[in-house]
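Q: Could you write out the predicted structure for this multi-component system? I'm mainly interested in how the pieces pack against one another.
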Amino acid sequence: MTDFKTLRALDPKSFMDAAQHMNAASDKQNTARGDYATQVAVPVEGGDIWSDDAQPDAVTVLNIMDLAFDTSSTLMASAAVTTTTLAIELHAAKGALDKVVSDAVDKGLEVHDDGKVVEGPKFTVPQSHGYNPYSGSIAGAVDLGAPLVEEYQGLVDLAVQRATDADDACSKLLQQIAYTDVPMATTAEPGLLATAQWVNDQAYQTYGQASQLLLQLQNQANTNLQKYKNAHENPVLGILKGLWEGLTGIWNAAMTIASLPVMGVEALCGSDSAKQWFSQLGDGLSKMNLGDLIDLDDLKNGRYGEFIGQNLWWLLPVGKLGDLGKAADAGAKGLADLGRGARQTLADVRATLHAGVGGRAPIPGKPWTGTGKTSQQLVDAGTAQGKGGVPRSVQEMDKHATGQRGSGDKFPPLKGGPAQKLETAQQQLGQIMTNPRTREVPIVGGKFKGGYYYIAPDGRGVAYDAAGNLQYFGEFTYPG
Amino acid sequence: MTARGTCRVTDLTAVGNTARGFDAASNDSDKALGKAEDSSNGARAGRLKSVGTISDLRLFWSAKFGSQGVDLHTIGDQLVGTANAYAHGDQAPVDEFKYVAPHYYGRMRPI
């Protein structure tokens, strides 16, 4: 268990910093996983560059290493979330303790280095004064502290207990993460891929556990507070206001941020309603007195992106998985699934944030921010009939295909009969819309104001009006 | 040994060389975890046992990341080795990724 002296000297922010570094370790593994898949695993697995009896063994090894990246990333993320929980709980416990001590001293009590609360020196009213206003008696010793010693001792113990509970629980989970073996291989050892998959499931389960820990500890702290109330006749509780309870703000924040892929960056950071929402969020989180622990100043000063960037990685899983009832019903396997879900949401939100203002990378199957349509729907819009019953994509491609105009050669020539032309036009459209680096850029003026351009990295682009109707192809400057 | 197949030597060599470089990701992860340990040590945390656990975490994971880095580099070597075998016209290139069970001799054989 920890003690009074430790808690008084403690700097919880250091654990928040530690958690940020753990999260960086997680990110490096996660990024490496994606790069390894596209640059190593996919070329080898495809069989185009190498094919013989040995190649399947290499594929097995690469799959094991792919899982090792993911497992390591998930476990490092679990350690980061656990350490953040430790920082928040210690911050709450220390904040409460510091206020209790300060208040106790103001009331004339003394709090020793071992956490023992005692009465301070008694104020003695000289005989000559005759009347003691505190005791009502005529002269003698004035006992200011006695009725309060027990109450304050209870609060000191409560704060130390909270720190101890957090330390015990977080240390236990961190130990579990420390000792987890991650299967890795350079040869296709039989059965190892299945073991690696099993360990990967365990890692996601650990992530689920880590994400729920904050709520469990806060519930425990509230139970202990109730016991304190029951045990004391006149509990002094005002001191703890705002320091002991209040995860609601975190959940609200997490839930709203989780909707980012749908809302989009511009809607989140630029609109008046979003600004109002962020202001409310700042007020809510302020009540927890989290202060500079989670860079609340960024939120207060309208630097929403910086606040989210700093806290998203722990805020989202803690908010999403904080519902203890849901997790209890889910069981171990369900918890792992929830953990995967939270990680995916996190990845989606990050993809949205990283795309920046002026467009975003498409998330397969999800609608684009501007038009609210999926890539598939926008491609299908190309087959809508235009003048003379000619599909819109063919009609517009005809103006921009190579050889049709004096300049520009990014689009191929449009040749053949109607069917072949349609195939070529739709193929071009599909290539633009499904390129993971294609950007959505608002049309801010002209006939199609309110619509959007979709621009591929090679400059091929297509414009849609506000209703999602294809208007024209063109060659654009890629916004990056 | 394996039957001869097909190999685009230049491409597979390039992939192997790329694969070798991924050991940097392991080193970077280890460095980040080292910074986490430093931060935790700076918490003036006295009797808090989590500080010791974070040090353990760093210690064990340093070994894991080290091992990952070695394996990633080795896999790159093996891919390049396979490409080289094809480049040299070997009729039956060695399966660099084949698992070979450890051999036991005399008393070392498990019962």
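A: Regarding packing and overall arrangement: Residues 49-87 of chain B form the longest helix (39 residues).
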